[in-house]
Write a structure and sequence with these properties.
about 15% helix, about 140 residues, alpha+beta, 3 helices
Length: about 140
């Protein structure tokens, strides 16, 4: 977590769903379909948005892997479910696009992205043979 502390409120069972972020304006009927998911969307001009609907920090970390183009591991030790939404500049953003970097957007949630080296599990197949099968 960032030094400023977590800015997200944990969603407790029975709590009503949080309102959708502005980029989902008029799409309230989508709430049941996106509940429990992390949604990434392109907003134009090189701006992207990430929306989480009652998801864990591990699910947020997994959702950040595509825009960061690397493995992201949750080290927050937070076990709750959260609602969040933020916009950020993609690498191909136009010069006049108005949004923070992905790192800044995550910091505004009270989280921190930190680059580290570590072990990663991999499955390596070093040999495959085609064996005929009887029909």
């Amino acid at each position: 977590m960032a030094k400023s502390g977590l800015k997200l409120k944990e969603s407790k069972p029975g709590d009503p769903p949080a309102p959708l972020p502005p980029w989902f304006a008029g799409k309230d009927t989508m709430i049941p379909q996106i509940e429990g998911k992390v949604i990434a969307s392109a907003e134009g001009r090189g701006i992207a948005a990430v929306t989480g609907r009652r998801v864990s920090m591990a699910e947020l970390a997994e959702g950040l892997q595509t825009p960061l183009r690397t493995f992201v591991m949750d080290k927050t030790n937070l076990t709750g479910k959260y609602y969040f939404g933020f916009k950020f500049l993609r690498d191909d953003a136009l010069p006049d696009a108005d949004a923070p970097s992905l790192s800044q957007a995550v910091q505004e949630l009270g989280l921190r992205l930190e680059k580290q080296k570590g072990p990663v599990e991999m499955l390596v197949i070093d040999h495959v043979e085609k064996t005929p099968t009887a029909n």
